[in-house]
Amino acid sequence: MTRFSRNAALLLSLSLPFLAAHAGADPAVPSHDYWGVHGGQNDLDRLGVHARYASSTRYDGHVDLQHGAHVGVQLGRSSAQARYEVEFETGDFSARHLTAGPINADVHGRGHYQAAFANVYGTAHLSERLDAFAGIGAGWGHVEVPHLVLKNACTCFGKSTKDGGAWQARVGLAWQVSPASDVDLQYTRLGLPGAETDGPPAVQYNRLGFGAWTLGWRSRF
């Protein structure tokens, strides 16, 4: 089991019993469609890297990152105790320092990620206007780590990309601000592919496993 899978399982195991204990869904509440947007910040701060040169020399290390923005858009359907949706998310991060073998230098460059998910949530009615929700999603992601421009060193870590399977787990609270609209505060844990390039040198980055806090708006129609 990957570190992300363990984190997602722990997040859900802690939240789902709470939702079950507090569920007070009204069966008379009709199902409805909705759209939503959310935005905030990710907590990406370090990314493992593995470099292999033509001489078979291999260096393992990491890139220190500065976290960046995280945004998403959603389209779904909600019932009294569940939500189902499709979602697109994107974000960025900045590379600050590279440590790998003999290289220990500042770098600069901005990376990006995008992912599309199918999500399912359990929801619980906590009060007249406050709901809690927890869920998990599966989908496909794209990650791009920039060309790491080293100051006073080689420029041999080129741009790396990768497409592949992606997962996320989410918990949050929703406050009804009108009969048709909610404001959401949520925490999402994501797992995205690890970027790579053939080089030389051949560079492979660890999978992105990170969290994001976002504030969202959902509107029913």
Q: What does it look like?
A:
This protein is mainly beta. The chain has one helix spanning 3-22, and strands at 32-42, 46-52, 58-78, 82-100, 103-108, 110-125, 130-145, 149-150, 160-178, 181-192, 196-197, 202-205, 208-220. 35% of the residues are buried. The model is unreliable at 13-25 (pLDDT under 50). A hairpin with a 3-residue loop joins strand 3 (58-78) and strand 4. It is built from one helix and 13 strands; from the N terminus they run αβββββββββββββ. Strands 1-3-4-6-7-9-10-13 form an eight-stranded antiparallel beta barrel. It has a single domain (3-220), classed as Porin.
Question: What is this structure's SSE topology?
Answer:
Blueprint: H1 3-22, E1 32-42, E2 46-52, E3 58-78, E4 82-100, E5 103-108, E6 110-125, E7 130-145, E8 149-150, E9 160-178, E10 181-192, E11 196-197, E12 202-205, E13 208-220
Antiparallel strand pairs: 1-3, 1-13, 2-3, 2-12, 3-4, 4-5, 4-6, 5-8, 6-7, 7-9, 9-10, 10-13, 11-12
